[in-house]
TrEMBL record:
It comes from Methanoculleus receptaculi. Its cofactor is Mg(2+). Residues 193-266 form the GHMP kinase C-terminal domain. It is found in: Cytoplasm. This is Mevalonate kinase. The active site is at residue 123. It catalyses: (R)-mevalonate + ATP = (R)-5-phosphomevalonate + ADP + H(+).
Length: 289
């Protein structure tokens, strides 16, 4: 029996712009998904299409038990974490000897298949490897880990990443001279933010700018605006949508002493708050017997 876990992720900067080759920064965060796999001749068929596909691709049969600290459809990469943890547990239980890179790439291919064509290579890469990552087109560079105090606010409004990505593509098609400079500006502020990683006041300001640019792209939602404003008003350095928007989650960068207050303000606006920070571990073995 093998139990592996994999973390969720947030985009600190650059979501949507990353789809057009601009730089983005993503970070693994503490809530994790735990998956236990056990060899079995007559396993019951798992309900999750992601898990089914993991067993099919790895060519083995086994029973599976999932425990998740990540809400699905919240924009925190829960399906990527489930897929990465399941592949890692299968790899271990059946002694298959695949590398972390192979697990990340296979998880991306599985997400693409299950989601019928659209998936984020960022989600699976960050969940498999942990830490903070700069993504530019196909390239992924690990950044020095920074202990940022974050509060994630889940609006509890379900969203579709595919729909939001399509919406931005339509805007770009119909108003290229407006949409392209917004995407360029997001790319520029992402690069500027890298230089300010240890300066939370500056970083917060960049988050606020990134949020405004995401709203200009049309991926805002009344619920995310409410949470962002509540976080700022209760002492956050800055706050923004994280991920695809149109609901989903926001992140707020906070002074250590303001974390609980910001989380309370988010909950008072009917959001669900998670106080978190970077998770430098990616997929991790929890137990093997
Ligand atoms: C979704 O979490 C982030 C987007 O940038 C899409 C992607 O990176 O694949 C909107």
């Amino acid at each position: 029996m093998a139990t592996w876990s994999a973390p969720g992720k947030v985009f600190l900067f650059g979501e949507h712009a990353v789809v057009y080759g601009k730089p983005a920064i993503a970070m693994a965060i503490k809530p994790r998904v735990f998956v236990t796999v056990r060899k079995s001749r007559n396993p019951t068929r798992p309900k999750s299409p992601y898990i089914n596909e993991c067993f099919r691709v790895m060519g083995v049969r086994g029973s599976v038990y999932v425990r998740s600290q990540l809400q699905s459809s919240s924009g925190l990469g829960s399906s990527a974490a489930v897929t990465v943890a399941t592949l890692s547990a299968i790899n271990d239980e059946f002694n298959l000897g695949y590398s972390r890179e192979y697990i990340a790439e296979t998880a991306f291919a599985i997400e693409k298949k299950v989601q019928k064509g659209r998936a984020s290579p960022t989600d699976t890469y960050v969940s498999a490897n942990g830490g903070m990552v700069l993504i530019t087109g196909e390239s992924k560079r690990r950044l020095p880990p920074e202990n940022l105090h974050l509060v994630v606010g889940n609006t509890m409004v379900p969203h579709s990443t595919a729909k939001m990505v399509e919406q931005v593509a339509n805007l770009r098609q119909h108003h290229p001279t407006i949409a392209n400079p917004i995407l360029d500006a997001i790319g520029e502020l992402t690069l500027a933010a890298i230089r300010e990683m240890s300066n939370p006041k500056e970083l917060g300001q960049y988050m606020d700018m990134n949020h405004a640019l995401l709203e200009a792209l049309g991926v805002g939602h009344p619920a995310s605006s409410r949470l962002v404003l509540a976080a700022r008003a209760s002492g956050a350095y800055g706050a923004k949508i994280t991920g695809a928007g149109g609901g989903g989650s926001i992140i707020a960068l906070c002074p250590r002493r303001a974390k609980n207050r910001v989380a309370g303000a988010i909950e008072a606006c009917e959001g669900r708050a998670i106080i978190t920070t970077i998770d430098t571990d990616g997929a991790r073995e929890e137990k093997h017997d």
